[in-house]
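Q: I'm writing a short methods note and want an example of a predicted protein-small molecule complex. Could you take the sequence and the SMILES for glutathione and return the bound structure as C-alpha cells? Please keep the output block clean; save any remarks for afterwards.
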Amino acid sequence: MKLIGSNTSPYVRRIRLLLTDTPHDFVHLDIYGEGRDELRRNNPTLKIPVLRDGSQEVYDSRVIARYLSQKLGLTPLSWDQENQLTLIDGANDSCVTMLLSRKSGLDVEADVMFWNLQRERIMTTLRTLNAMVEGGDFAGWDYPAVCLYCLVDWMHFRELVEFTGVESLLAFRDQHRHEASVADTDPRNA
Ligand SMILES: N[C@@H](CCC(=O)N[C@@H](CS)C(=O)NCC(=O)O)C(=O)O
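A: Understood, no commentary inside the block.
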C-alpha cells in the first residue's frame, strides 16, 4: 500500500495516523513545486492524500478512511461521528483556502465577503467542536479525534486562527501529543 501526500497536510496526517499499525510506503510530494507533475499523474483533482492499494487508487481522505476501515475490519463510523468529520472538514477546507490566499499574497484580513464567509465558518465550527470537546464527545482516540487533532495542530502550526474562546481545543491537542505516530508526523519537523 502506498500513501501519496505531504509532510504538512492535515488531511494526509490523519491517514498516516490511521495507518500507524499497517505497513505502507509514504511518499511526500511538494505539491506546489517539484512534486506537481507526480501529483498530476496520480490525482486529476490535484489534491492529497491519494492511496494506492495494488491496482486500486483511492482519492480523498474521507473515502480513503472508509476504504481502510473496510479493509482493516474497523467499526464503521456512526452518523454522529460522520457529522464530527463534516465539522472538522468544514473548518479545514476554509483554512486551506485562507492559507492558499495568504500564500498568493492576498490580504486575507480584508473585509471581503469571500474571506468573511471562510472566517465565519471556521469560528462557528471551532466553537461547536470546542463545546463538543468540553462535553466529552472526543474523549477517546478514535478516527474523528485523530482528525480533530490534525486540524488543531495544523491551524496552530500555520498560525491560522486565534484560539481565544476555544482554548479547550488546544488542551485536547496537548492531551494527545504522545499518541502513536503523532510526534513522527509533526508538520514542524517536515
Ligand atoms: N476533501 C479532501 C481535501 C484534501 C485537501 O484539500 N488537501 C490539500 C492539502 S492540505 C490539497 O491537496 N490542496 C491542494 C489545492 O487545494 O490545490 C480530502 O479530505 O482529502
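A: Remarks, as requested: Helices lie at 10-18, 36-42, 61-72, 79-103, 113-134, 143-157, 167-175. The chain has two domains: 2-74, 79-175.
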